[in-house]
Protein backbone atom coordinates (compact mmCIF):
# COMPACT_ATOMS: atom_id res chain seq x y z
CA UNK A 1 0.00 0.00 0.00
CA UNK A 2 1.41 3.42 -0.85
CA UNK A 3 1.14 6.52 1.35
CA UNK A 4 -1.64 8.02 -0.75
CA UNK A 5 -3.82 4.96 -0.22
CA UNK A 6 -3.21 5.02 3.53
CA UNK A 7 -4.37 8.60 3.93
CA UNK A 8 -7.26 8.69 1.49
CA UNK A 9 -10.40 6.75 0.56
CA UNK A 10 -8.99 6.11 -2.90
CA UNK A 11 -9.29 3.64 -4.48
CA UNK A 12 -12.59 2.42 -3.07
CA UNK A 13 -13.49 -1.25 -2.84
CA UNK A 14 -16.25 -1.76 -5.42
CA UNK A 15 -17.32 -5.03 -3.72
CA UNK A 16 -19.67 -4.89 -0.71
CA UNK A 17 -17.53 -7.52 1.08
CA UNK A 18 -15.90 -10.97 0.85
CA UNK A 19 -13.03 -9.60 -1.24
CA UNK A 20 -11.38 -6.43 -2.49
CA UNK A 21 -11.63 -4.99 -6.00
CA UNK A 22 -10.03 -1.59 -6.49
CA UNK A 23 -10.81 0.42 -9.61
CA UNK A 24 -8.23 3.14 -10.32
CA UNK A 25 -9.77 4.48 -13.57
CA UNK A 26 -7.38 5.46 -16.37
CA UNK A 27 -3.77 5.23 -15.19
CA UNK A 28 -2.41 5.77 -18.73
CA UNK A 29 -2.83 8.95 -20.77
CA UNK A 30 -4.73 8.90 -24.05
CA UNK A 31 -1.42 8.94 -25.92
CA UNK A 32 0.10 6.10 -23.88
CA UNK A 33 -3.09 4.05 -24.25
CA UNK A 34 -3.04 4.47 -28.03
CA UNK A 35 0.64 3.54 -28.16
CA UNK A 36 0.22 0.38 -26.07
CA UNK A 37 -2.94 -0.65 -27.90
CA UNK A 38 -1.15 -0.48 -31.28
CA UNK A 39 1.87 -2.28 -29.91
CA UNK A 40 -0.14 -5.06 -28.27
CA UNK A 41 -2.58 -5.53 -31.15
CA UNK A 42 0.19 -5.73 -33.76
CA UNK A 43 3.24 -7.16 -32.00
CA UNK A 44 1.97 -9.80 -29.58
CA UNK A 45 2.03 -13.34 -31.04
CA UNK A 46 -1.69 -13.92 -30.43
CA UNK A 47 -2.96 -17.50 -30.43
CA UNK A 48 -6.44 -18.97 -30.30
CA UNK A 49 -7.30 -20.25 -26.87
CA UNK A 50 -8.07 -23.93 -26.71
CA UNK A 51 -9.91 -25.83 -24.02
CA UNK A 52 -11.10 -29.39 -23.58
CA UNK A 53 -14.70 -29.27 -22.42
CA UNK A 54 -16.57 -32.57 -21.95
CA UNK A 55 -13.85 -34.26 -24.00
CA UNK A 56 -14.24 -31.93 -26.96
CA UNK A 57 -11.57 -29.52 -28.13
CA UNK A 58 -13.05 -26.03 -28.19
CA UNK A 59 -11.19 -23.23 -29.98
CA UNK A 60 -12.23 -19.73 -28.95
CA UNK A 61 -12.38 -16.72 -31.28
CA UNK A 62 -10.83 -14.64 -28.53
CA UNK A 63 -7.04 -14.74 -28.73
CA UNK A 64 -4.57 -15.11 -25.89
CA UNK A 65 -0.88 -14.82 -25.05
CA UNK A 66 1.03 -15.60 -21.93
CA UNK A 67 4.19 -13.83 -20.73
CA UNK A 68 6.34 -13.88 -17.60
CA UNK A 69 9.72 -13.39 -16.02
CA UNK A 70 10.44 -17.11 -16.64
CA UNK A 71 9.07 -19.73 -19.04
CA UNK A 72 6.50 -20.70 -16.40
CA UNK A 73 4.54 -23.82 -17.06
CA UNK A 74 0.89 -22.94 -16.63
CA UNK A 75 -2.11 -25.23 -16.78
CA UNK A 76 -5.29 -23.58 -17.95
CA UNK A 77 -8.46 -25.32 -19.15
CA UNK A 78 -6.63 -28.67 -19.10
CA UNK A 79 -3.84 -27.45 -21.38
CA UNK A 80 -0.24 -26.89 -20.40
CA UNK A 81 1.45 -23.78 -21.75
CA UNK A 82 4.78 -22.06 -21.35
CA UNK A 83 5.08 -18.33 -20.79
CA UNK A 84 7.12 -16.23 -23.22
CA UNK A 85 9.62 -13.84 -21.68
CA UNK A 86 8.64 -10.19 -20.98
CA UNK A 87 9.06 -7.72 -23.83
CA UNK A 88 10.33 -4.23 -22.83
CA UNK A 89 6.81 -2.82 -23.30
CA UNK A 90 5.17 -5.49 -21.12
CA UNK A 91 7.80 -4.88 -18.47
CA UNK A 92 6.92 -1.14 -18.51
CA UNK A 93 3.23 -1.98 -18.12
CA UNK A 94 3.96 -4.41 -15.28
CA UNK A 95 6.08 -1.81 -13.47
CA UNK A 96 3.37 0.83 -13.80
CA UNK A 97 0.78 -1.58 -12.33
CA UNK A 98 3.14 -2.45 -9.49
CA UNK A 99 3.76 1.21 -8.69
CA UNK A 100 0.07 2.13 -8.68
CA UNK A 101 -1.22 -0.97 -6.89
CA UNK A 102 1.65 -1.48 -4.44
CA UNK A 103 1.71 -5.20 -5.34
CA UNK A 104 4.13 -7.31 -7.42
CA UNK A 105 3.48 -9.60 -10.38
CA UNK A 106 5.61 -12.16 -12.26
CA UNK A 107 3.43 -13.10 -15.21
CA UNK A 108 0.65 -11.85 -17.46
CA UNK A 109 -2.22 -13.38 -19.41
CA UNK A 110 -3.25 -11.26 -22.40
CA UNK A 111 -6.65 -11.46 -24.08
CA UNK A 112 -7.68 -9.99 -27.43
CA UNK A 113 -11.43 -9.60 -28.04
CA UNK A 114 -11.97 -8.67 -31.70
CA UNK A 115 -15.36 -7.08 -31.03
CA UNK A 116 -18.31 -7.22 -28.64
CA UNK A 117 -19.35 -10.69 -29.84
CA UNK A 118 -16.38 -12.09 -27.91
CA UNK A 119 -16.36 -12.15 -24.13
CA UNK A 120 -15.47 -14.38 -21.21
CA UNK A 121 -17.87 -16.55 -19.19
CA UNK A 122 -18.16 -16.42 -15.38
CA UNK A 123 -15.07 -17.83 -13.68
CA UNK A 124 -12.69 -17.07 -10.85
CA UNK A 125 -8.93 -16.90 -11.25
CA UNK A 126 -7.92 -19.45 -8.67
CA UNK A 127 -5.82 -21.94 -10.65
CA UNK A 128 -3.50 -23.90 -8.41
CA UNK A 129 -0.40 -22.38 -10.07
CA UNK A 130 -1.37 -18.91 -8.87
CA UNK A 131 -0.30 -17.57 -5.51
CA UNK A 132 -3.20 -17.99 -3.07
CA UNK A 133 -4.92 -14.64 -2.46
CA UNK A 134 -2.35 -12.93 -4.72
CA UNK A 135 -3.39 -9.66 -6.36
CA UNK A 136 -4.44 -9.67 -10.03
CA UNK A 137 -4.04 -6.40 -11.94
CA UNK A 138 -6.27 -6.00 -15.00
CA UNK A 139 -5.40 -3.34 -17.61
CA UNK A 140 -7.63 -2.47 -20.55
CA UNK A 141 -6.74 -0.89 -23.92
CA UNK A 142 -8.97 -0.27 -26.94
CA UNK A 143 -12.73 -0.71 -26.66
CA UNK A 144 -14.42 -0.02 -23.34
CA UNK A 145 -16.55 -2.87 -21.99
CA UNK A 146 -18.76 -3.72 -19.05
CA UNK A 147 -17.36 -6.16 -16.47
CA UNK A 148 -19.43 -8.07 -13.92
CA UNK A 149 -18.85 -9.71 -10.57
CA UNK A 150 -21.29 -12.27 -9.11
CA UNK A 151 -21.13 -13.55 -5.54
CA UNK A 152 -20.84 -17.35 -5.50
CA UNK A 153 -23.39 -17.77 -2.68
CA UNK A 154 -25.67 -14.72 -2.53
CA UNK A 155 -25.59 -14.22 -6.36
CA UNK A 156 -25.30 -10.47 -5.74
CA UNK A 157 -23.91 -8.65 -8.80
CA UNK A 158 -21.55 -5.69 -9.10
CA UNK A 159 -21.05 -4.03 -12.46
CA UNK A 160 -18.20 -1.80 -13.60
CA UNK A 161 -17.32 -0.10 -16.87
CA UNK A 162 -13.68 -0.67 -17.78
CA UNK A 163 -12.31 2.45 -19.43
CA UNK A 164 -9.42 2.57 -21.84
CA UNK A 165 -6.05 2.75 -20.08
CA UNK A 166 -7.70 1.74 -16.79
CA UNK A 167 -6.49 -0.48 -13.96
CA UNK A 168 -8.66 -2.82 -11.88
CA UNK A 169 -7.06 -4.82 -9.07
CA UNK A 170 -8.70 -7.93 -7.56
CA UNK A 171 -7.19 -9.08 -4.28
CA UNK A 172 -7.70 -10.72 -0.87
CA UNK A 173 -10.45 -13.34 -0.91
CA UNK A 174 -12.13 -12.04 -4.11
CA UNK A 175 -11.49 -15.22 -6.12
CA UNK A 176 -12.80 -17.45 -3.30
CA UNK A 177 -16.13 -15.66 -3.11
CA UNK A 178 -16.81 -13.98 -6.44
CA UNK A 179 -16.97 -14.95 -10.10
CA UNK A 180 -16.29 -12.42 -12.85
CA UNK A 181 -17.31 -12.18 -16.46
CA UNK A 182 -16.89 -10.03 -19.56
CA UNK A 183 -20.38 -10.09 -21.11
CA UNK A 184 -20.73 -10.04 -24.90
CA UNK A 185 -22.41 -6.96 -26.36
CA UNK A 186 -23.69 -5.98 -29.79
CA UNK A 187 -22.76 -2.33 -29.12
CA UNK A 188 -18.99 -2.75 -29.36
CA UNK A 189 -17.58 -3.11 -32.89
CA UNK A 190 -13.89 -2.62 -32.20
CA UNK A 191 -11.17 -4.70 -30.49
CA UNK A 192 -10.22 -4.66 -26.84
CA UNK A 193 -6.95 -5.86 -25.35
CA UNK A 194 -6.88 -6.89 -21.70
CA UNK A 195 -3.83 -7.78 -19.63
CA UNK A 196 -4.06 -9.54 -16.28
CA UNK A 197 -0.83 -9.41 -14.30
CA UNK A 198 -0.62 -12.28 -11.82
CA UNK A 199 1.78 -14.10 -9.51
CA UNK A 200 2.66 -17.69 -10.27
CA UNK A 201 3.82 -19.59 -7.22
CA UNK A 202 7.22 -21.19 -7.79
O1 LIG B 1 -10.92 -9.29 -20.25
C1 LIG B 1 -11.09 -9.05 -19.05
O2 LIG B 1 -11.38 -7.93 -18.64
C2 LIG B 1 -10.95 -10.12 -18.00
C3 LIG B 1 -10.18 -11.32 -18.40
C4 LIG B 1 -10.16 -12.34 -17.32
O3 LIG B 1 -10.99 -12.37 -16.46
C5 LIG B 1 -9.08 -13.32 -17.29
O4 LIG B 1 -8.21 -13.31 -18.18
O5 LIG B 1 -9.06 -14.14 -16.37
FE1 LIG C 1 -10.42 -13.71 -14.86
From TrEMBL:
Q: Which Pfam families match?
A: 2OG-FeII_Oxy_2 (PF13532)
- Keyword tRNA-binding (UniProt): no
Q: Name one molecular function that GO assigns to this entry.
A: dioxygenase activity
Specify the domain of life of the species encoding this protein: Bacteria
Q: Which InterPro entries match?
A: AlkB-like (IPR027450), AlkB-like_sf (IPR037151), ALKBH3 (IPR032854), Oxoglu/Fe-dep_dioxygenase_dom (IPR005123)
Which terms are listed as keywords in the entry? Dioxygenase, Oxidoreductase
Q: Which residue numbers delimit the Fe2OG dioxygenase domain?
A: 104-201
Q: Return the PANTHER family for the record.
A: ALPHA-KETOGLUTARATE-DEPENDENT DIOXYGENASE ALKB HOMOLOG 3 (PTHR31212)
Q: What is this protein called?
A: Alpha-ketoglutarate-dependent dioxygenase AlkB
Amino acid sequence: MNLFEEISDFPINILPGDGIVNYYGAIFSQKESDFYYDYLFNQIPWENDEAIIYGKLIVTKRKVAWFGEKAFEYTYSNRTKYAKLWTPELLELKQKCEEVSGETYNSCLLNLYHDGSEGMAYHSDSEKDLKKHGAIASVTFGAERKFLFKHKVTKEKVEIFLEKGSLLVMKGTTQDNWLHRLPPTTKVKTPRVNLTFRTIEE
